[in-house]
Write a structure and sequence with these properties.
Helices cover 40% and strands 28% of the residues. The chain has one domain: Alpha-Beta Plaits. The protein is α+β, with helices and mostly antiparallel strands. 19% of the residues are buried. It is globular, with a radius of gyration of 14 Å. Helix 1 runs antiparallel to helix 2.
Length: 98
């Protein structure tokens, strides 16, 4: 695992319920990838291969649009180590959620 990505997807929506519905579709897609992920209140973290993660980030935007958002903003954080391992989600947060 050479990369970790945090993505915050912000679709344009008529109201909070619509916003949550669209974001839930994006999160469902991320979970369906089978990669380790952590859903937080503002963003979702995913870990895996850099190229695969970049494809997932791209697809998240398409999913939000297909779900009905006329536009979508995304804030992305990337930790990439081509010759090594990044810190895992578990190592970063487990001690804080016991």
């Amino acid at each position: 695992m050479n990369a970790s990505v945090a993505i915050q997807t912000l679709p344009e929506a008529k109201n909070d319920e619509e916003l949550i519905r669209i974001v839930d579709e994006v999160i469902a897609y991320i979970k369906s990838t089978g990669l380790t992920c952590y859903v937080g209140p503002f963003e979702t973290a995913i870990e895996g291969d850099y190229d695969e993660l970049m494809d997932i980030v791209k697809e998240c935007q398409h999913i939000a649009i297909r779900a009905g958002a006329p536009s979508v903003l995304a804030y992305i954080k990337v930790d990439y180590r081509p010759e090594g391992e990044v810190l895992t989600i578990d190592r970063k947060v487990t001690k804080h959620h016991q």
